[in-house]
Specification:
This protein is of the alpha/beta class. The chain has six helices and six strands. β3, α4 and β4 form a beta-alpha-beta unit. α2 crosses α6. It binds flavin mononucleotide. The site of flavin mononucleotide has 23 residues, from α2, α3 and β4.
């Protein structure tokens, strides 16, 4: 009799333990699911805030990559840079993606002094000018993705980048804007790309502070990984 009672008790304990384990497993699973969901939605809303909801988070197919950049080498301090800030960032992207690079070179080069360049850039903006590009344009048909980088000049891409954008159709491709700047972030570069190429898959761009360009490799790599490169 006592043996039978013991057996029943043992069975009850086993059922009780299994029930506890099942409840704990369900609670833990739900918690993890909820955390993943809220992380994802936070990320999505952050991306859409940055990009006014238009830019995509992932390339359709990242395939063959081209980096197009314009860089003046002098920033605002007229300092002794060996290469321009934007070129530094372009090279970090190149190192990670193995992309081809194309530099936009001005037929009429910009002056060395910041002041003279600033005046000219402002005039070009006022005139909605399209300054001539000296070198042959790249054959973009070969590429699935084009990164488009430049310094922010008066809150926008320099007008010579607009010359490039008017001349080259990037609709249907992944297009990724990037800038260097002295406080304005991307300025309106992201919007300019979205407006110019309504049928492109415009990905979330990045703005790197020019004077931090040389220390930005990790940030650039993290951004590239986030957008699928
Ligand atoms: C003509 C001109 C206009 C600029 N306008 C801005 C601006 O509106 N906002 C900003 O944050 N930086 C501005 N800058 C600073 C540059 O964006 C910054 O120094 C950039 O990193 C230079 O890149 P680069 O060395 O590749 O040419 C301007 C610089 C120049 C020469």
């Amino acid at each position: 009799m006592v043996r039978k009672e013991l057996q029943v008790m043992r069975k009850r304990i086993v059922v009780f333990v299994i029930a506890i384990v099942a409840v704990v497993a369900v609670l833990v699973g739900y918690n993890v699911f909820q955390r993943t969901q809220s992380k994802d939605s936070a990320r999505i809303s952050q991306v859409s805030r940055t990009n006014q909801g238009k830019s995509k988070q992932r390339p359709k197919k990242n395939g063959k990559v081209l980096i197009v950049y314009f860089s003046r080498k002098k920033g605002v301090s007229d300092g002794p840079l060996k290469i321009g800030h934007t070129k530094v960032v372009a090279d970090f992207i190149q190192q990670r993606t193995g992309a081809d690079e194309y530099e936009i070179k001005a037929a009429n080069p910009y002056p060395k002094s910041f002041k003279a360049t600033a005046d000219r850039a402002q005039q070009e903006q006022t005139d909605d000018a399209r300054p001539k590009i000296k070198n042959k344009l790249p054959n973009v048909k070969k590429y699935d993705t084009v990164f488009l980088g430049a310094p922010v000049w008066w809150s926008e891409y320099p007008m010579i980048v607009r010359t490039f954008m008017d001349a080259v159709d990037l609709n249907g491709k992944n297009v990724v804007p990037f800038t260097t700047h002295k406080g304005s972030g991307m300025g309106s570069a992201q919007n300019q790309v979205e407006k110019q190429y309504p049928d492109a898959n415009v990905l979330e761009g990045i703005g790197i502070e020019g004077e931090q360009a040389e220390n930005s490799q990790k940030e650039v790599d993290q951004w590239l990984s986030k957008i699928g490169y």
